[in-house]
Amino acid sequence: MCSNNRGITLLSLPGKVSSGVLERRVRRIVEPRIQEEQCGFHPGCGTVDQLYPLSRFLRVLWGVLREYGVSGPLIRAVRSLYDRCQSLVHLAGSKSNSFPMMWSSWRDLQRSPDWFAAACEAAGIKISTSKSEAMVLNRKKVECLLRVKVEEFKYLGVLFTSEGRMEQDIDRRIGASSAVIRTLNRSVVVKRELSQKAKLSIYRSIFVPTLTYGHELWVMTERTRSRVQVAEMSFLRRVAGLSLRDRVRSSAICEEHELEPLLLRIERSQIGWLGHLVRMPPGEMFRACPSGEDPGHIGETMSLDWSWNSWGYPRTS
């Protein structure tokens, strides 16, 4: 049985109208006090706003140095301060094993958990140990004494890895879409009794969301573009009753069914997401993520250019 269940309440029609009026009045009072991190309770924001900062941390920080004109050797030297800094404890003539040192002194290292615990307590936050996992965002393997340590974890339906890359989540999305094809193949996709209009409706409502969830975070490399197109056409060719042996171009199949190519749809959605970032007020946390800095200190152009580069688009003047 689920340990996190909640009961539901069924309201009458007058009760629904009354609760809607109360909700709108309470929202006007409460909404200004909701923190920006609680995207699900802000108008115009959603889960992608939460996923975006997490996906950019590792990728953006070193890119900011490149934007400032810092050369590759200097960046590698700076990274070595974080990647190769180790220390050990000398006590009673014995030495401990070397361990990574991420703070300037052992006092700060010891105090950091206390600071974190104090901040959580002040905010009324309590960590659920039964639901928590630990993942180290580091490409160098280190030993961890935490009870549960993982190399990847799923957050709001998107898979994040300790290396900070999205390729595994893209592969997982493609695998999930292939599972949809296998499940619906006989009962829907190749069933002659169903019209193509009904099949395409299932394609839009089930297959596409399964394949493209979280695509705003993807970097569209040639490998990713090729794999997404293969997954898309695998479904559409079955709907059209064709195979690769028929040598019919993918563009012809999309034109016949009046469908927009999925890659074009993804690119348009990513550009729309970029516009969503640009339209945010200057103090928003999520708008600062493309450059890794406060937008008040770095110009909008830099944030915009870095967002395009991080998505894999060529930078334009």
From TrEMBL:
Protein name stated in the entry: Reverse transcriptase domain-containing protein
Organism encoding this protein: Takifugu flavidus (sansaifugu)
